[in-house]
Amino acid sequence: MTLTPLVDDARERLLARARREGLIAVGYDVMDSPLGPLWVAVGPRGVIAIHYGARPDERELARITRTYGPGVVPDRGRCDGLLIELDQYFSGRRRTFDVAVDLAPLTPFQRRILAATARVPYGEVTTYRQVAREAGNEQASRAAGGALGANPIPIVVPCHRVVATDGSLGGYAGGLAAKRRLLALERGTEQVPAGGWPPSRR
Amino acid sequence: MACHLTSARASPFYRREIGPVTFGDLLERHEREIFAYALRLTGNRADADDIFQETFLAAFRAWPPPRSGNERAWLYRIATNKCVDRARKTKRLVPLADLRLAAPERDGVTIADLAAAVRTLPPGQRAAFVLRKVEGRAYGEIAAVLECSEDAARSRVAEAMKKLKEAIR
Q1: Are B59 and B26 in contact (CB under 8 A)?
Q2: Is there a domain that residue B45 lies in?
Q3: What ipTM is given for this predicted complex?
Q4: A17-90, what's its fold?
Q5: pLDDT: is A15 or B17 the higher one?
Q6: Is residue B158 part of a domain?
Q7: Does the pLDDT value for residue B41 go beyond 70?
Q8: Mean pLDDT, each 10-residue run in order, chain A (202 residues)
Q9: Which of A8, B38, B153, B161 could form a disulfide bond with B142, CB atoms 3.0-4.6 angstroms apart?
């Protein structure tokens, strides 16, 4: 008799009860993407985090609990919509995301920067200076870089489409190889395997 | 743009010395051992499931855990109290077949013998016995779980052992 299925069952019932009692605010899941594992989290008003790696660091988790409280639990069902859209994106079948995102915990400046970033079309790039200008302060390109570096929802808010004014890639939370790959995917220069990428669910 | 240069962001897996930040953390770290403990104390899946849920719901409601790194003893204490309360309320006997998981096997003693003896122990002694002899916990930890002194934990285990030896003699 192995314990795992019993614990899985007990956990599901526990989480259902905790949800009914209003103790849960955020559900997370982990997907295997072509760029490695992605930890994704969905809050009451939409997607709140996409993190490169199987688990965010303490700082990232603390950022989430400051806003939403400690009720952050594994919840595949709540993340399904996002994971499906990410799957479609990685297989080249989706150019824009329809899921709601929640940027409320950010500062107004960060929100303006990310809103300007979200308007950069699929397959195109812009510069830090340009998004700073669109956010209302052309001089603030360094701060724009900071806001993009702190983008809690990469890929969906496509900060990979923002590069340095001299044409160099700048930086990226998921690493420059990931940024390059996302841009290649969007420009159609990356070969998508027949039948799409391998199944990206865990 | 230096500010956006956060490639290969250090992403340490949680460190034990830092307390759980979220309910999910607490669950991931302790769900298995708490379920196993509840199973050993109650001897059946349905009750273990209830104890498991009540324990974690109580922990969620009482958030945050008392002190960083101490959440384990805290959870065991909640689980133990839930089991003791339940045993007092229901005075229910444990089905023998379910106690297979609860009892370590000994030479010359059948599991059924031992299981039958374990179920006759009062809840406090049963918890002390399971924590010490089945889970191998240190007396300090058992004392924290049962909210008693280490000496009291020792004597509960000793008393349980004495009763068990008498029962299976």
Answers
A1: yes
A2: yes
A3: 0.80
A4: Double Stranded RNA Binding Domain (3.30.160)
A5: A15
A6: yes
A7: yes
A8: 89 94 95 95 96 90 92 94 96 95 92 94 92 88 89 96 85 88 86 46 35
A9: B153
Tokens, residue B86? 């339940």
Can you give the pLDDT at residue B91? 56
Instruction: Specify the pLDDT at position B107.
Output: 52
Domain region containing B147: 20-168
Residue B129: give its domain's CATH number: 1.20.140.160
Instruction: Return the residue in A24, A50, A63, A73 with the most chain B beta carbons within 10 A, the one to mutate for interface testing.
Output: A73
- CB-based contact, A169 to chain B, within 8 Å: no
Residue A9, classified by CB atoms within 10 Å of its CB into exposed (0-12), middle (13-18) or buried (19+), is middle
Please tell me the predicted confidence (pLDDT) of residue A190.
Answer: 63
| Min distance A107 CA to chain B CA atoms (Å) | 17
Give, in words, the CATH class of A108-187. Answer: mainly alpha
Domain limits, CATH 3.30.160.70, in chain A: 17-90
- Say if residues A11 and B27 touch (Cβ distance below 8 Å): yes
Kindly report whether the global pTM for this prediction surpasses the value 0.90: no
**Has residue B150 been placed in a domain?**
yes
- How close does chain A come to B152, measured CA to CA in Å? 31
A159 a catalytic residue: yes
CA distance B150 to chain A (A): 30
Does residue A58 sit at the B interface (CB-CB below 8 Å)? yes
| Cis omega (within 30 of 0) for bond into B64 | yes
Q: Looking at beta carbons, which residues of chain B come within 8 Å of A18?
A: 23, 56-57, 60
User: Does the distance separating the beta carbons of A74 and B24 come in below 8 Å?
Assistant: yes
**What average pLDDT does the structure give for chain B?**
77
Residue A47 vs residue B68, higher pLDDT: A47
How many folded domains does chain B comprise? 1
Residue A53 backbone zone (phi > 0: left; psi -120 to 50: alpha; other: beta): left
Q: Are B73 and B144 in contact (CB under 8 A)?
A: yes
In a domain, B2, yes or no: no
pLDDT at A2: 86
CA distance B68 to B19: 4
